[in-house]
Amino acid sequence: MKKLIISLLTVITIMSCKKESEQKKTITVNYPETKTVDTLDTYFGIEVKDPYRWLEDDRSPETEAWVKTQNKSTYNYLNNIPFRKELKERLSSLWNYEKLSAPFIEGDYTYFYKNDGLQNQSVIYRKKENSEESEVFLDPNTFSKDGTISLGGTSFSKDSSILAYSISEGGSDWRKILVMDTETKDIIEDTLIDVKFTQISWYKNEGFYYSSYDKPEGSELSAKTDQHKVYYHKLGTPQKEDTLVFGGTPEEKHRYIYANVTEDDNYLVITPRISTSGNKLYIKDLSVPNSKLITILDHTDSDTYVIENEGSKLFLVTNLDAPNKKIVTVNASNPTSENWIDLIPETKDVLNPSISGGYFFTEYMIDAISKVMQYDYNGKLIREIELPGVGNVNGFGSKKEEKVDYYSFTNYNTPSSIYKLNIETGESELYWKPSIEFNIDDYESNQVFYTSKDGTKIPMIITHKKGIELNGKNPTILYGYGGFNISLNPSFSITNAVWMEQGGILAVPNLRGGGEYGKAWHNAGTKLQKQNVFDDFIAAGEYLIENKYTSSDYLALRGGSNGGLLVGATMTQRPDLAKVALPAVGVLDMLRYHTFTAGAGWAYDYGTAEQSKEMFEYLKAYSPLHNVKAGVEYPATLVTTGDHDDRVVPAHSFKFAAELQSKQTGSNPTLIRIETDAGHGAGTPVSKTIEQYADIFGFTLYNMGFEVLPTKANEKIKG
Hints:
Layout: E1 2-8, E2 25-31, E3 40-43, E4 46-49, H1 61-78, H2 84-95, E5 99-100, E6 104-106, E7 109-115, E8 123-128, E9 135-138, E10 149-156, E11 162-169, E12 174-181, E13 192-196, E14 201-203, E15 207-212, E16 229-234, E17 243-246, E18 256-261, E19 267-273, E20 281-285, E21 293-297, E22 304-310, E23 313-318, E24 326-331, E25 341-344, E26 350-356, E27 359-366, E28 369-375, E29 381-385, E30 392-395, E31 404-411, E32 414-422, E33 428-432, E34 443-451, E35 457-465, E36 476-479, H3 494-501, E37 505-509, H4 519-523, H5 531-546, E38 555-560, H6 562-573, E39 580-584, H7 603-606, H8 613-622, E40 636-642, H9 651-663, E41 670-675, H10 686-703, H11 710-718
Parallel strand pairs: 36-37, 36-38, 38-39, 39-40, 40-41
Antiparallel strand pairs: 1-2, 3-4, 5-7, 6-7, 7-8, 8-9, 10-11, 11-12, 12-13, 14-15, 15-16, 16-17, 18-19, 19-20, 20-21, 22-23, 23-24, 24-25, 26-27, 27-28, 28-29, 30-31, 31-32, 32-33, 34-35, 35-37
Catalytic activity: Hydrolysis of Pro-|-Xaa >> Ala-|-Xaa in oligopeptides
Keywords: Hydrolase, Protease, Serine protease
Protein name: prolyl oligopeptidase
């Protein structure tokens, strides 16, 4: 066993005044030996070693044993952090408040999700119109004792008498679909199995469309899946008789195919994708028996979808020749792009539209902040919706005949509240506000703009307690994502609230690769421009340090999935930037990511090592796994992953942790925390989430030099 002695000085105050006479505390970390193998891959004549390839076999007893020994080592360390229990207690205490979703109407009932506080999974309740009495409709906490079976998507039949819902076991992306009678709450059919990356879309009350892959050979958690198929399930028939609708031929092969039926049951919309960006688009007239597919788009140069229809008039949302998106109309009989007519034109701000009560509600992102406009189906502006503050809204999805709708509003220091909207007048009123033991008036969020390496201005929102001293000694988490056209909009998080209670700063930059400024912003962080994302993140850290929010000794880098790649690339390129690195469920092997599950679908953002020598060399130059160097002192690192993550397979994290442990120089610990019966994150039980963040925050503060929580250190010095 290789031993590492970690020495940390006792910290008296949040300003970290260290006394020479203080006693040092040590924790011994016993790293398990990780064997190496002589695996070589050759790319364009260049050999690349992969000594930990054996860890990709998630079914092998050797990998299972490695996971157990790594967790034993990690928890031995975490158990010795003196304030870990206090963090868990505070997370549990703050988490323990009632949480509600925006309600929605199905048939004679109003449905809503509610969590009493510490329930592992939120429960679906319902009540009849004008009734104050609600009943439990579906409780996912009954699916399993430990909360590791979670509820996925839900979809009601057109008359709301039947519910089809999916469940995930252990956090896997593979799903099962169950069918329930909504009056009796009885399961009325055999469970559909082996379903993945799907919508559930009803045709009348007769059946529904869903998508899946053939079960792969080998491990279902890591084997490649790349031919998605759309099926129609008719109620009362076994799954083996489900009709294959699209995706069954080589010509129809795509990695992701989604199907949905328009609200009037007239059209089936098929959306095939070869990557996470860009799609083809087809429709099928369901009112005509045996009708053929009609092509709207036969290429993947845009993200385009049908948002609504009135008879044969289709309303499409598209970024084709409109990077910030627009809404167009076209007749279903001749729907190709040359016939499109602009209804709501593109603007300088990114459009994210919804339909509600027979209107379009168009959310525009202005520097990642929401602005909502209401339009009629003729494209006439009705009004701007007055929002309760500066932040982020979600909602606007009621059925065409409804007169009221609900939306939620939040920002980094405001817990999500629900507002009731009168669709005809545009007036909002507070419907529900959480009762939480967190005083939002004690905190502030400010947006700044900083300059990245190439001169690009990047927005960042910095949230913290009011009145903090900018002395370079505030514990700070720099959180980022930067990919897949995903926008990081302001939203409240209980875990972030606990961090800020301790005097911590949360900084969230809107990096290139995201969708905050449309398709051009996304493309500026993809393929041969991916380094822009890392440069943006590094520049954010430098801004925080230069402006005395924090310093390298008190800065932590955090991100998950594509954000885990961000952290891994940043810490290997700039190991001096931060004291702590927290890559979660990260894409860390950029030469092989596309060989696992549906990873090849990420090629729009990343490119692949096989496509060209230039792309291979570019990927290898930033791939975290391939850029860990001996003789370098990397930040204190806690890699986190789940053993059932079949989106970003845990082998990424396993191999990266092994490389770090073998090459780390200096006293900073390199640990991996592997959650069992957990996947990429969705559906994780509350109890597991609380434990994870107690460990993450405990590890972070301890490696910043704190031996008591910062709030207690302050109390001690004031006393």
